[in-house]
């Protein structure tokens, strides 16, 4: 499925631009530069179907991709967050768009919250998790760029994040450790996504 048809569907800067809720959806969230585009591209084995935001804080759209022929599900690339210099208005728009999407999106089966293996959880990730808890949208924590840290550091970050994530009602206690660069953890994540869309 992941190596077959993947197509960009549309970009929704506002909720009125959302596609009809026809297929199960899996969303991807994370701080700007966490490796979200790289992970989406690696999962679907494309070089650049998901694109890095050139100007952090400017991309405020939800990008939809269709997977399968005929379509089996959609991937939703949510706007990155946590950029230091974003104007208040941009952050406010982000919050409104994401919160409303999460609360009202019936076909949304799961959200993948990406966290950099080097940094662990930041306050903006905590805000994201709280929004997901409040919207009752189940989510998985995905550590990214695992190739950038030593095994011992990875274990330390992992257990620290896991301990905190356990307190969030809508979070899966078990995390995924990935590296888009090295292909690590991708097959497991694909399997998890397939089980999520079938729920
Ligand atoms: P986004 O802003 O979250 O979409 O992040 P990108 O996917 O554009 O990645 C940000 C930077 O991190 C880029 O320079 C990527 O090459 C790098 N990066 C992403 N994933 C990995 C990874 O698994 N390993 C390493 N070493 N670098 C990565």
UniProtKB/TrEMBL annotation:
Q: Name one GO biological process term.
A: division septum assembly
Pfam families hit by this protein: MMR_HSR1
User: Family per UniProt?
Assistant: Belongs to the TRAFAC class TrmE-Era-EngA-EngB-Septin-like GTPase superfamily. EngB GTPase family.
Location of the EngB-type G domain: 22-199
Q: What does the UniProt record say this protein does?
A: Necessary for normal cell division and for the maintenance of normal septation.
List the molecular function annotations (GO) for this entry. GTP binding; metal ion binding
Which HAMAP family does the UniProt entry name for this protein? GTPase_EngB (MF_00321)
PANTHER family given in the database record: ENGB-TYPE G DOMAIN-CONTAINING PROTEIN, MSS1/TRME-RELATED GTP-BINDING PROTEIN
InterPro entries found in the cross-reference section: G_ENGB_dom, GTP-bd, GTP-bd_ribosome_bio_YsxC, P-loop_NTPase
Question: Which lineage do the record's taxonomy fields give for this organism?
Answer: Bacteria, Pseudomonadati, Pseudomonadota, Alphaproteobacteria, Sphingomonadales
GTP-binding recorded as keyword: yes
Which NCBIfam families has this protein been placed in? GTPase_YsxC (TIGR03598)
Query: Under what name is this protein listed?
Result: Probable GTP-binding protein EngB
GO-annotated cellular components = cytosol
Needed cofactors, names only, are: Mg(2+)
Q: Which UniProt keywords apply?
A: Cell cycle, Cell division, GTP-binding, Magnesium, Metal-binding, Nucleotide-binding, Septation
Q: Does the keyword Cell membrane apply?
A: no
């Amino acid at each position: 499925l992941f190596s077959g048809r993947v197509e960009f569907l549309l970009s929704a800067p506002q909720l009125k631009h959302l596609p009809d809720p026809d297929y199960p959806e899996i969303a991807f969230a994370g701080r700007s530069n966490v490796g979200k585009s790289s992970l989406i591209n690696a999962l679907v084995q494309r070089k650049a179907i998901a694109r890095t935001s050139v100007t952090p804080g400017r991309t405020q759209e939800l990008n939809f991709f269709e997977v399968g022929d005929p379509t089996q599900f959609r991937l939703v690339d949510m706007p990155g967050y946590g950029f230091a210099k974003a104007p208040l208005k941009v952050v406010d728009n982000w919050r409104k768009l994401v919160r409303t999407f999460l609360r009202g999106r019936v076909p949304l089966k799961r959200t993948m919250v990406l966290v950099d293996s080097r940094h662990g959880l930041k306050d903006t990730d905590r805000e994201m998790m709280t929004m997901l808890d409040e919207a009752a949208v189940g989510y998985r924590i995905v550590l990214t760029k695992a190739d950038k840290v030593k095994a011992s550091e990875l274990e330390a970050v992992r257990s620290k994040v896991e301990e905190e994530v356990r307190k969030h009602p809508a979070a899966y206690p078990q995390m995924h450790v990935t590296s888009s660069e090295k292909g690590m953890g991708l097959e497991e994540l694909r399997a998890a996504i397939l089980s999520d869309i079938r729920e």
